[in-house]
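INFO  loader      accepted 1 record
INFO  loader      residues=300
INFO  predictor   begin
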Amino acid sequence: MDHHDVKQNEEVTYTIEATNSLANTTLHNIRVSDPLPAGVELVPGSLKVDGQAAINEGDPGQIKTVIPEINGNQTVPITFKAKVTQATDGTITNIATLVDPADESHPQKPQADIQVVDSKGLLKSNKKVDHHDVKQNEEVTYTIEATNSLANTTLHNIRVSDPLPAGVELVPGSVKVDGQAAINEGDPGQIKTVIPEIKGNQTVPITFKAKVTQGTDGTITNIATLVDPADESHPQKPEVDIQVKSEIKTMTKDEIKINPIKKLPSTGDYDNKISQPFGIILVMGGILTLIHPFLRRRNL
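INFO  predictor   done
INFO  writer      dumping tokens
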């Protein structure tokens, strides 16, 4: 084994060593087989015998070859590569079998272990909307982004949920995961889906459309939740706002009515109406002033 601690999707190189431990002897047609265990898979074309490319005569997932000759005190290596497919922590044991046709009852069974170590990724998330200022009956497109921020790791079965808030309603059939139409497993008014796999440094978008039902001005906040089953205690809760602005109706010229305005009295008209009574009073006062002395003499 070139290394023992591995992660999912890594490649390892196995080496089986066949040795003739007796000087001045020769082993012939040593049969070598190695059925690969669950958790690893053979890299095609990687088999070599004594450094030379060799034909694998085994079924898929199995090494099978023959070493024509091994001289005394000689070691012949058989090497091949395998890719780790197991994602969970654990030990994978690989056991080979070597048989000398001259001694069928004593096969050799060398083995090697690899330890699959924690290869879980790190979930990050973001949420956005195609436009923020909206009006009643408009449609908006929400996007939830799920990212695995660690290279050479894989996230599995990320659960995504999004209960739509009051003021918006889901457009049926609009849910997509990574650009492909997806089945919404949520109740009416809720997004619910699963992302099967997110590789290292990969971002998977979840998109859906919603119709604005709110008619009054105000902010609508939409909060999603993403959960990694391997890290249930740290859910992601990305959110985004839209701002509803009620539509102000603009009147057309045909809708505008101008009421006729009655003629207001002119300044002169107003003055005449006020001054006429005062003029009469002043004239009468003047006459009384003039005749008052005559009346007084007559009385004397």
